[in-house]
Amino acid sequence: MEFELFDMYGRKEKKLAVDQRTLDISSDLEIWDHRLKEIEMMLRNLVTKRASQILSKQSLATRYISSSSILLAKYDKSSLYRKPTDRVKKVKTPEEAAKLQIEEDLKSDSWIVRWGAKTRTKEFQKNMTWYYVVCYILFLVFGYKYMSGVFSKEKQVEEIGKKQLENIASEYDLLKLKELTGKLRRRDELKLEEYEKLKNQGIEDLSDVKVDIESTNTSNKNILPARDTTSFYDGKAEDYDSDINWEEKAVFMGRRRKWLMKHCNGDVLEVACGTGRNVKYLDMTQIKSITFLDSSSKMMEIANKKFREEFPTYKNAAFVVGRAEDLVDLASNKSNKDELLVKDIDDQKINVTDASTTIKYDTIVEAFGICSHEDPVKALKNFETLLKPGGRIVLLEHGRGEYDFINNILDNRAERRLESWGCRWNLDIGEILDDSGLEIAEEKRTHLGTTWCIVAKRKDDAKKKEEIGFVEKYISKGFQDRLKSMTGNGPTNDEQKK
Asked: What is the percent of the chain with per-residue pLDDT over 70, rounded to a whole number?
């Protein structure tokens, strides 16, 4: 006999075979009871096993449903999922974004931003061609006016040059020449103003008219009278270097001193050498001989020591104790034997009057000496007298600046400066150079115009190639003729090409 077993869902689970003979024959209750217990145990095991399987499947289903709910919730919150009620924002193209940015910039409070936005608009870009045309026309107009002014100046320079060549140029003509070449000093400006007033009054011929304007160096009450500073520097010599070091480092004066000494070549004279602060910048390979001059014997001893330490084997050097105002007397053997002595590197004293009567130099340099000379104009004239043909006078000086507020400071501190350093730092160096008769080949000013870097020459010497500026060399019409008329023996065209 077979029994069919079903699970709780009605599905057939298993067939159970029962021996009929055993049921019929066996009467033993214990055997029957035992059989029933086995059947009961078998059924219980089957039910338990099936129930555990069902619970396991239910757990998996629950977890699946839970995870699906989470995913759906995340998807619902994602930007990729949009509800039917959500508003969809349209993605802007780069052109649209740029247009919005321009509109925003046009409303900016900054005028620079507004103008920048305006130049990016389509309307402006469409009109750019017209803007280019207008700018080009303006360039032509202003360029024509500028070049007309340049050619007009060139014509005036040529006319004045012809007058100079014929020796009929008036002071007014020379002042106009300075104005045209950008070399007008303050005193010259005042003179030119007076001449212009005379012309406005109807006086056309100014050849016989002479206008006198007092020099700034004599009319300015803040410029103290000159004096002999020899005794002052004798007392200052020992502490001079230590006291001046910080001031020169603060304004990078070492670079200017280096510029000064790089011009040294051939036979060199350094005037107002002081304690020899320029010795370390010397290039002795370019120097044939060198002479140092200073009125202070104490400072000269320090300069001599520095030179000996820097160039112990160099013999062709001399150290002269004397004033710049006495240079010509020194060279012509008219000086006092007891006042002017020369010391060579080995401290051998040489009587100046036994030297050659002709002493000339290729290069004469001076650093911050004009402000301390008793007669700076005479000193510069002596430099010119002792200069060889084609030689150069190179000056590094301090004086009046390019701005009035700077000059006011110099004037207000002039007396204190003279007491501290023995120099008149508010002198007009340009006027002193003009009064000396030297011609300036190169002029540069730094530190708001208070530091003067000058390369000067004799008027009858031609300019060197490196001293001719770009405009003067390539643009100025008839440059050779004007240079020749001004100097007397300017370079020819063939020489200039070389």
From this structure: 74
Q: Which helix (H) or strand (E) holds 160?
A: helix 128-165
Whether residue 390 lies inside any domain: the answer is yes
pTM, 2 dp:
0.66
Q: Indicate whether 221 belongs to any domain.
A: no
* Arithmetic mean of pLDDT over the chain: 80
Q: Say if residue 325 is in the same domain as residue 370.
A: yes
Q: Closest by alpha carbon to 207, among 253, 258, 172? A: 172
Instruction: Please give the order of strands across the beta sheet that includes 266-271.
Output: 349-351, 341-344, 317-321, 287-294, 266-271, 361-367, 387-398, 451-457, 439-446
- Distance, CA of 319 to CA of 282 (rounded, Å): 15
Residue 192 domain-assigned (yes or no)? no
Instruction: Classify 448 in phi/psi space as left (phi over 0), alpha (psi -120 to 50) or beta.
Output: left
Give strand pairing partners of 321.
294
**How far apart (Å, rounded) are the C-alpha atoms in residues 270 and 383?**
10
Q: What whole-number distance in Å separates Cα of residue 434 and Cα of residue 184?
A: 10
Per residue in 397-448, pLDDT (tens digit) is 999 999 999 999 999 999 999 999 999 999 999 999 999 999 999 999 999 9
Q: Which residues form the domain of 14?
A: 2-70
CATH number of the domain encompassing residue 400: 3.40.50.150
